Amino acid sequence: MNLKIYSLIAAGAFVLSIQSGCKKDFLSKDPIDKITGEVALTDAAGANKLMKGVYDGMYNDYHIWDFMTNGDVISDNAYAGGDNPANIQLDLFTTNSTNGNVDRDWSSLYSDIKNANEVIENIPKVPDPSLDASGRRNQILGEASGIRAYMYFNIVRLYGAAPLILKTPTNLADTQQPKVAIDKIYAQIIKDLEFAVANASATSANKGIFTKGVANALLAKVYATMPSPDWTKVNQYCDATIAGGYSLFPNFNGLFDIANKNNSESIWELQFQGNGGEHGNWMPGIITGTGWKRFNTPSNDLVKAFDDEGDLIRKNSSVLFRNVSSDGWSDIYWPKSNYPFINKYRADDKSDNYILRLADILLLKAEALNEISSAGWVQSKVIVDQIRARVKLSGTPAADQASMRLAIEKERRLELAFEGHRWFDLLRTNRAIAVMNAQLDGKGAPLNYNVTPEKLLFPIPQKEIDRNPNIR
Q1: What would the DSSP string read from start to end of 407-430?
Q2: What pTM, to 2 d.p., does this model score?
Q3: Which of 2.60.40.1180, 1.10.10.60, 1.10.10.10, 1.25.40.390 would CATH assign to domain 2-276+353-467?
Q4: Are 24 and 286 in contact (CB under 8 A)?
Q5: Which residues contact 92 (CB under 8 A, 6 or more apart)?
Q6: CB-based contact 164:149 (threshold 8 Å)
Q7: In the prediction, which pLDDT does 276 show?
Q8: Is 142:200 a contact under the CB 8 Å cutoff?
Q9: What is the reported pLDDT for 378?
């Protein structure tokens, strides 16, 4: 069979913005194994190549850097830093539909969906019987379905209602779909993830591969994030994930050493080999260093949270202070003589990005147990204390459902800082407005974010509104 690749919602989805003041080369490269144009897809090798194109397509701005900007800079974990107007708008809650990040994230996520749809549509047609004898055909379909679900999970959390594209567009009308309700998007996400649980491989030494464990972990997060969370389902899928053979890495700081990639705690991580390899991670070089002002600066509030908890291990693993007094830029939040940088991505070009790890799921299970029953905090405490023990902290003092709810929120913040989770945690627990409007600077003055409900989601990009008359 011949496979013709069509463009989805935004042509040029992989255009990367050049950040003002940066010296790095941000020119994107087409994935080595991405199938483009019209090609023959007749055997297992071609099928695997098409699936690899889905993975390669994920090496875009969203998954390399914007995941952290969206999850941490918008939240109380970090300031925008740098000098990029789009990032600063996100940080200050002044974003509008022309914001460059809002546009590129939309394009990147729908481009990833396009790639997954091409696999889901075409792999069943490949006439190679070896795909069935080995079970590889269903594995590929499971991986592609799971990745499509993950992209829609990001879209619905960022934008809310949005077009639900489940096939490769073949004409203009196919690319001009209206928004569908949030509930319909979540239903499709769950359907795709359930298919992935049934068909993806159980494990993979390469934690960049979408496995059953990834699908189970995402189902737990999805059921916790839906407008009406199903905590019994959250607990069920947390248990399924935990049973997948994962274990906490014994040394928290070691999680971020490149010698420990694909470790026992990792469920899903974006893989980087560095210069000379297939994929390089340019993100570390723009968040840490001297000479020009780096992006995503740790906030005073986060550093205070570490200090108030006496959490030296996670603080030092997450934040690095440097004297940058000689640099020719200014900052309104921190003194340059003791300026913080993110410390979880320590090897420029080679640091992997965790998408999911076990500590996230353990704390989500603790949250589920606490929500299922008013007495569930007792079971939750065991899990929270397990996470705290790894970083040599005593057990949580929380002793009822309400206090445990806040204890878990805090624990997730300190454990998962700069891994892209905080803002979405605040959103799903309906705490975003209260937390952000209470933010103070390092001197105790209000930051006056003035967050209101209409500022909690990204607007639909103006370019998409102009291009698609049905999305208004």
Answers
A1: HHHHHHHHHHTTTT-HHHHHHHTT
A2: 0.93
A3: 1.25.40.390
A4: yes
A5: 80, 449
A6: no
A7: 83
A8: yes
A9: 98
